[in-house]
Amino acid sequence: MNEYIRVYSDMAWNKVPIKRGVCKMAKIISGKEVSANVRAQVKKECDELKTKGIAPGLAVIIVGDDPASRVYVNNKKKACADVGFVSEEYALPAETTQEELLKLIDELNNKKEINGILCQLPLPGHLDEKTVINAISPLKDVDAFHPSNVGKIMIGDYHFLPCTPAGVMEMIRTEGIDVNGKNCVVIGRSNIVGKPMAMLLLHENGTVTICHSRTKNLKEICSSADILVAAVGKPRFVTADMVKEGAVVLDVGINRDENGKLCGDVDFASVEPKASYITPVPGGVGPMTIAMLMKNTLKAAKIQNNI
Length: 307
Ligand code: BQF
Fold this sequence. Notes:
By secondary structure, this protein is α/β, with parallel strands linked by helices. The protein contains ten helices and 13 strands.
């Protein structure tokens, strides 16, 4: 799809095509806008379910008082209210035992008003994340962290996608960016973002490379990327010398810089002029993560009601 700028030349206004990546200016993909569209769609479908007497419900468990986790949980509760879901917050003290947490999850697994369950990570050190994730019913696992859902993603036969990679793919799709045959580089190999991100790009026929802390010639590999996803967890880690002219740059990082300012894994100021598309932080992938959680919860409600 061509985009144009209007240029005045002597006698008339003319349409001049914008060539992304050549005009030294990236299109900034607004996660705020794309996520608002996703949430509007979810709200519409939620209204339809309500006419059938179904009210989708999400349970959010938070253990302890990590301030970032508190912000994320509040974002999720607010999004639920926006789209018309019921949300229940279970705020447990930091000293909660594994048995107590597993008992709550078991109750929520059996509670029919609750369609989705998520336990905000990271958990305090004495709790075992693996055991907790395993305890959540795969049918209510709207984060898609349960091994059974992870396995389904691997073979491309899934009902829930992990929210952050799904959010990135949704941005790619809405912008009409073609992944087919493109060199895709994912920096970071976490179970929550890097690994599933690579898998989703592969499903779209990308040629995918995963880079990590032991990768040799990181700069060369990143510079070969048509589509570059940064999920490193280090402020402004990706600099202009690592990015190919015209690349699509998707920034999953949410960091605080030395001044306490929110920033991504990408050095936005230097990379933006080189990229064709780029996502900002804040207001990029973050809001998409929340929107895709709403999408998963809607799907869970539908499945559990045989719709
Ligand atoms: C924005 C998360 C690391 C570890 C655990 C909007 C969120 C963030 C940023 C948000 C995240 C990050 C979430 C913005 C949820 C995304 O405007 O840029 C929303 O709430 N997120 C989480 O639940 O757990 C995390 C990052």
